Amino acid sequence: MNGAASGARSLPFFQQGSTLKITRLSPDALLFWEPSEALPFDWNDAVSLPVPGEPVTQRHDTGLNVASADGSADWIAHDRFVQWRGEAGKADPIPAPPNRVWSDPLSATGGW
Asked: How many CA atoms lie within 13 A of 91 on its CB side?
């Protein structure tokens, strides 16, 4: 699950693991995406953070499958995902968080 959407970065350490009602999330917030199959450690827990150090799957060539808070599933291009998580050096401007991957409802910046 997307750690940014679950408040993993904005809650004090002793409250991490607390839950949020799904109605607190933006309906288009990404909750799940495919981690990299090349790095077994990426499968060690149920949390993914949208940070450059955590690669996403490359097995679909140009994109990945994602699931949103509204219950929908979608396929998005790698470039779009990289743009949302804010990697420097990309052609498109980075959208200001919060956005679809930085979607922590407890943070004004989406957990960025």
From this structure: 2
